[in-house]
Amino acid sequence: MRRDTYIAQSVKMAENKRKSDLACKKILASREVLAYILKGVVPEYVDSSLEEIEKNYIEPDIIFQRSLVVPGLTGQKEYIEGMQQEDGIVGEATIFFDVKFKALLPGAQRRKAQLCLYFDIEAQNKYRPGYPLEKRGIYYLSRLISSQIQTVSEDTNYNVLQKTYSIWICLGNDIPKRERQSITSYVFHKQDICGCSGDNKADYDLMNLIIIRLGEEPAEERTLGMLQTLFLGEMGSGERLRKLKEDYRLKISRKTAKEVESVYTYTDMMEERIEKRVEKRVEKRVRKQVEEQLRKQMKMQLAQQFTKKGIDIYKTLQETGSVTKTAEKLNEPVEKVREIAIEYQINVSDEEM
After folding, report:
1. Within 10 A of 143 (CB to CB), how many other CB atoms are there?
2. What's the pLDDT score for residue 14?
3. CB 263 within 8 A of CB 27
């Protein structure tokens, strides 16, 4: 019965976590949150309003989560939810984007060869998962580029390639303190080795990696502050939603609010369980320390008592060789004398032991 209960609870917790992770992805896929991120870290949208970005530029019909990225298949099929996050086939790696979408460029920046931008938004719990996150981001950017052309031949028109952004939101506790509350952009730029070329920047400025590192410290930069409020800090979902609306003017939809509540209901549940475990461990450790201290105190008391009366009992036992005679001579309880005789292995008559 215990085993069944444990398994059932484990399965339920795993399912709750899966739903929580999926809810987190859905929060990032909400248009109001995406608009805030784009305006805050993507130069192309710095002069646009949040409403313009949300309603006019982010294409509503192509926001999808966990997009399968396989060479030759990307762009043909999107796997939304319920699929495994990572997979692979022989000879080729398969990855999944958390949130992938296209957004039109603002009208003044729109050109024949550059109409939109490709975006990948990733939520990362471990800042240093055993490899540099920058390399993984560059790899994802490469896939965003290659996915735009299905077949390469001599007649391939590379003019169709659109600029790509991979934006990583790091939430883990392993971020070094000096790097927390920072945003870094990694761009592709040219360097003339000899002479000077007149290249058009738009022809090579096609990949931009942005890493956002959150922390618990107060954030003056509004994008950091909004994401911090959304994902970090000790507050309930109600307080979190209130701050997002009042401090950051986010018009949170009912659907997004529901996802926020889903994430933090699971988080609160896990924190409560962890706190209880910690409390039990601390209580056990404290109890052990108190018991050890009491033992030491009792030993000290016994030692003090022994120095006063025990020495006389010890000497008298050696002289008399009798527990009864020693007890009568010193007017001490027989049991006490017998304990000292046993403790110090003093030879006395067998019938008395």
Report:
1. 20
2. 43
3. yes
